[in-house]
Every structure is written in structure tokens, then in C-alpha cells.
Design brief:
Layout: E1 5-6, H1 18-24, E2 28-31, H2 33-36, E3 51-54, H3 62-74, E4 78-84, H4 91-105, E5 109-113, H5 127-132, H6 135-138, E6 143-148, H7 162-177, E7 181-188, H8 192-204, E8 211-216, H9 221-231, H10 234-244, H11 247-250, E9 254-255, H12 257-269, E10 275-281, H13 286-295
Parallel strand pairs: 2-3, 2-10, 3-4, 4-5, 5-6, 6-7, 7-8, 8-10
Antiparallel strand pairs: 1-9
């Protein structure tokens, strides 16, 4: 099976793969305020109740984040905004953000991450410090997701994965000693085998948090390369660059069918596999991604009590 799947734009799936359909149930998707503004009606694209992460990029006003959360919540979606530790000045700011999200959009879920900022804006360096404030628990948040990196994170570990692994063990322990309902939401990757090996390594290390695996949605190859460079997706970037050397494939859109099919087959053969959900990064556009998901059977939404 080829690593990447390319298909002519006019082609559409004629038959849904039942394993992919099962794996796509309860998928989530990520948006930013500026990309959300371009969507007239999310209800026409996503199943009701879909979990929608809102990425908080440095420089985005909290007012824009909250307004996006309010809109999505009003449309019946589960809203999970990012809380990037390094752009949050102090506990007072964190408490203000939490209060705004709750007061205007009834948010009870959050993705906590360090954030791609070299120098912290204030007191917080990483997501563990956000968790230790106790503010999310005090506000009654039901779900806290943390970041995962199947291909490593050079911002934390220049070589190897020692620091990332230690952080995940700490977060796993946090779940066991608190009432937090937690999961790992990962950076996107393009190859199934290393993803499976990474997920299995978590279990071997005693990390029991379920994994929501990041997958890049349909997009032009040039677009994926740009985002892969920006996000530090090392091994996958090399694969994309190799593909880009083939002019015939450079002009064809990428679809995640192959990598999703391999992960779905592994999940079907190993029901206890710790990857529980699929999370989309709609790098080629929200509508394009949502259409691909629907065409491949992704029609259900995450139950409110799920991790």
C-alpha cells in the first residue's frame, strides 16, 4: 500500500470502507478564528455535536477566540479551545480566559499545550504548570487534552524523546490522582507504521491516556509541505519532499485515505489499541476536509461524556 494517496479531484468514493467508517466515528476537527470566519454555516459541514478545537495562535486576541467559541457552541458543537501556556501572562489572565469561555460559550473542555513560542510571555512555560493552578478543576472543566508528538518535538527534545516522555508520564499521573478526564491529541503525521509504534510505546511506558491521532486533511502537496515545515514534522516532511520531486504527483491533491485505512485496519485487528479517535487538521480547507470525512462514513459526533 502506498504511503500517500492521490486522487483526481473529480473522483469520489464509490464504496465506503467499513473499517475507515468505524475509525472515523466521533472524529474531531480544528479551526482558527480567521478560518472559521470563512465558513457560512458549520452545521452544513459537520455532524451535530462534533468536537471542534479552536487553535490559539500567538497574536490572536482572546476576544476573537471567545467569539468563535460562542458561535460554534450556539450551533451545537462541542468547543475545545487551545490554552497555549507560553502566551498566557499569569494565573489572573488564565482565570480571565476560563471565565470568558464559560460565561459566553459554556466551554468545559480545553487542549493544554506549551505553544510554539520560544520565549514565554509570562509565568508559564508548559501545560503542566497550567494544570497545577487548579483553575480548570475549580471551573468544572470536564475534559483536559494534552499534546502528543508521534515524531518527537525538537522544541522540547533536540534529540530523542526523554523530556516529552517524562511530561506524558506526569500528565498520566495527574489523571490518576485527580478527577480530570484526559486524552492525548497529537501533531499530524503521514505514515501509519511509526504512529502505531509510537502509540504502542506509550502503553509499554505505562501511559494509559487515550490517543486522538492527528491527521492532515485533503490538501495540495505544496500546502502540506509548508505546514509540515512550520510544525516541525520531520520524517513526514522528507516523504512529502520526495513526492514533490515527481511533477505528475505534485499537481494532484493529497488525501489521507491510505494512512487512515492502515490505522483503521490495525484498530479493527486490535480493538484495545490506544488510538481512540481521529483528529483532523484541515490544511486544505474545512469544507474540503469535512466532505472527505462524510464521503468516507464519518457521520457521528463525540458523546458528551467521552474522553
Amino acid at each position: 500500500m502506498s504511503l500517500l494517496n492521490f486522487r483526481k479531484k473529480e473522483d469520489t468514493p464509490t464504496e465506503v470502507n467499513p473499517q475507515i467508517e468505524s475509525f472515523l466515528q466521533d472524529f474531531s476537527i480544528e479551526v482558527m478564528p480567521r478560518t472559521a470566519e470563512k465558513v457560512d454555516d458549520f452545521r452544513a459541514l459537520l455532524p451535530q455535536g462534533t468536537r471542534v478545537y479552536i487553535a490559539h495562535i500567538e497574536g490572536t486576541p482572546i476576544e476573537d477566540m471567545v467569539a468563535t467559541a460562542k458561535r460554534l457552541a450556539a450551533d451545537g458543537f462541542q468547543v475545545m479551545p487551545h490554552f497555549p501556556a507560553r502566551i498566557i501572562k499569569d494565573s489572573a489572565t488564565l482565570g480571565d480566559w476560563i471565565a470568558r469561555y464559560q460565561g459566553e460559550a459554556d466551554v468545559k473542555q480545553a487542549l493544554l499545550l506549551a505553544g510554539g513560542v520560544a520565549t514565554p510571555h509570562g509565568d508559564f512555560q508548559d501545560s503542566m504548570q497550567l494544570m497545577e493552578t487548579g483553575l480548570f478543576d475549580q471551573a468544572g472543566f470536564t475534559n483536559l487534552h494534552v499534546a502528543g508528538h508521534p515524531e518527537g518535538n525538537r522544541d522540547i527534545d533536540a534529540t530523542g524523546t526523554a523530556n516529552v516522555d517524562a511530561a506524558l508520564r506526569w500528565k498520566n499521573d495527574f489523571q490518576t490522582r485527580t478527577d480530570a478526564k484526559m486524552a492525548i491529541a497529537t501533531q499530524f503525521a503521514f505514515e501509519a507504521k511509526p504512529i502505531i509504534e509510537w502509540a504502542d510505546s506509550l502503553v509499554e511506558a505505562g501511559i494509559t491516556l487515550p490517543v486522538h491521532i492527528g491527521i492532515a486533511g485533503p490538501a495540495k502537496l505544496q500546502t502540506l509541505i509548508k505546514f509540515a515545515i512550520a510544525c516541525g514534522v520531520g520524517p513526514s516532511l522528507k516523504v512529502l519532499q520526495k513526492r514533490a520531486m515527481d511533477v505528475t504527483k505534485l499537481l494532484l491533491p493529497y488525501e489521507p485515505t491510505d494512512v487512515v485505512a492502515e490505522l483503521a485496519a490495525h484498530k479493527a485487528a486490535n480493538p484495545d489499541f490506544n488510538i481512540s479517535h481521529l483528529h483532523f487538521f484541515p490544511l486544505g480547507g474545512i469544507k474540503t476536509n469535512a466532505t472527505w470525512a462524510q464521503n468516507n462514513g464519518g457521520k457521528s459526533a463525540i458523546p458528551a461524556n467521552a474522553s
